[in-house]
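agent> fetching stored inputs for the PXL docking request
agent> found them:
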Amino acid sequence: MRVLAVNDISCIGKCSLSVTLPVLSACGVTCDVLPTALLSTHTGGFEGYTFRDLTGDIEGILAHWKTLGVSFDAVYSGYLGSEAQIEIVQKIKRDFLKKDGFFVVDPVMGDSGSLYAGFNDGYVEKMRALCREADYILPNLTEACYLADIPYPAANTDELLQKLRELCARPVVTGILEKENISIRYTNKEGVTQKYTSENVEGFFCGAGDVFASAFVGALARGKSEETAIRLAADFTSASIRRSAKEVADKRYGLNFEAEIFTFLKNLNG
Ligand code: PXL
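agent> prediction call returned; pasting tokens
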């Protein structure tokens, strides 16, 4: 199984490719990478970070890959630095994804009700177009509201999911808060809305969405059903968050997912 991860490299603050590579490798899946940008840290809480857009390198990379005749069993896209990169991912899907492969889009663009620095309404519109081509989309609640054009935090999650299904048949929305719990809502193969609930931990945990998405993609690549992949990924992410709430003093540095990877793999392989 060979997955292409299209995401940024944030040198510090464990997210994007620095999460996806170890998680997919641990799953026993080959993870090839297409870095979209190189940042000194992620943008979630650090001041003065550097940002190098790698769009200019991508054309040459893809042209070289063409000469190798490579193709992928899955393509998983995360943080894309510009609208031009969204179009590149659409092209990658057409040119490099195997006919029976799957395409997962994590429409990384915001959290806590707002868009991240550098994103705007034009980007959201382009992201909708990418979601239309995906087998699965994995927005958090903020991203789901932007995609569905519903005010955050979406009083009616059934309406939210219905609007997302107009973009992609299998939306998986993370981070829906309910009292002391946090849940994931998704639409199964039969078109029925399902819910998977974990204990909520107060605070903002940067990179948690990338841990979830990477584990989900890894489990799907290992042949698990969507439902099992969601449960495995949610349990892994939730355990990493609970541990990090106690152990990681500065949450900007990301989750201690490494300490939970063995349990995740036991569940994946068990
Ligand atoms: O984890 C999401 C993410 C990925 N990449 C970059 C980010 C963020 C969230 O802030 O800044 C560069």
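agent> quick read of the result: The chain has a mean pLDDT of 97.
agent> awaiting further instructions
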